[in-house]
Design brief:
Blueprint lengths: L11 E5 L8 E5 L4 H15 L7 H17 E4 L13 H4 L4 H11 L6 E2 L11
Antiparallel strand pairs: 1-2, 1-4, 2-3
Helix pairs in contact: 1-2
Length: about 130
């Protein structure tokens, strides 16, 4: 269902189609509010300005983003090599294929529109 106003607890069932880089991924997420998005981007920008050339600020920025995704991603069908669903947490988010983590980040922060999972389309777990 389309929403213009995001109520607390509102979630969206969505999917990213298969690409050359990763398989189709279905997931449920809480859309990030504008104020939260602004705060997240400011935190990442702040640590980026602290760069001393050793790459630590980039790692810190990635960790900030991963912790945010841990908070906003509710469910996904990402699986490990044994077919078990991977727990959503910052450490596992940082292990995602780079294009997938970027696309998920862009969807949750409102910078990219995902394809919505339609009623009756089902949620599968095969990635």
């Amino acid at each position: 269902m389309k929403k213009a106003f995001i109520d607390d607890g509102y979630t969206i069932d969505a999917k990213l189609e298969e690409t050359d880089w990763y398989p189709k991924v279905q997931f449920t997420y809480r859309p990030m509010l504008q104020a939260d998005r602004l705060q997240l981007f400011q935190q990442i920008q702040h640590v980026s300005r602290q760069d001393n050339g050793n790459g630590e600020s980039v790692k810190e920025g990635e960790l900030i983003a991963a912790k945010a995704m841990e908070e906003y991603l509710i469910r996904w069908d990402v699986v490990d090599r044994d077919g078990r669903t991977v727990e959503i947490n910052a450490a596992n988010y940082l292990q995602l294929e780079a294009h997938l983590s970027g696309d998920l980040f862009n969807v949750v922060t409102g910078n990219k529109a995902p394809r919505r999972v339609q009623e009756g389309e089902g949620k599968d777990t095969k990635n």
